[in-house]
Amino acid sequence: MTDSVPCDAIGRRIICDEEYATVRYVGSVPPTTGLWLGVEWDNPERGKHSGTYEGVQYFKCSHPTGGSFIRPKKADFGVDFISAVNKRYGLHNEVGSGDGNDEELILGNMPVEKVGFEDIKTKQSDLENLGDISVRECRVSHAGLNSDIHQRCPNIYSINLSRNLLSSWSKVADITRQLNKLNSLDLSENKLQILCRPASLADAFTSLAELALTKNGITWTEVLMCAPMWPNLKKLYLSYNAITHLERPVGVLQSLELLDLSYNALSDGNELKYIGCLPRLETLMLLRTGISSICFDDVGQGFKTSLFPALKVLSVARCNVSKWSFINELNKLQRLEHLICTNNPLMDTEKNPETVRQLIIAKIGQLKMLNKSAIVPDERKGAELDYRKLFGEEWLKEGGNADPEKNKPSERFVAEHPRYQFLIEKYGAPEDGELKRQQPIALKNQLLCVTINCPDKTDQKPIEKKLPESMTILKVKSLISRLLKTSHMDFRLSYTSVKMSGKEIEMDCDLKPLNFYSIENGDCILVRW
Question: Is residue 286 left, alpha or beta, with left meaning phi > 0 and alpha meaning psi from -120 to 50?
Answer without folding.
Answer: alpha
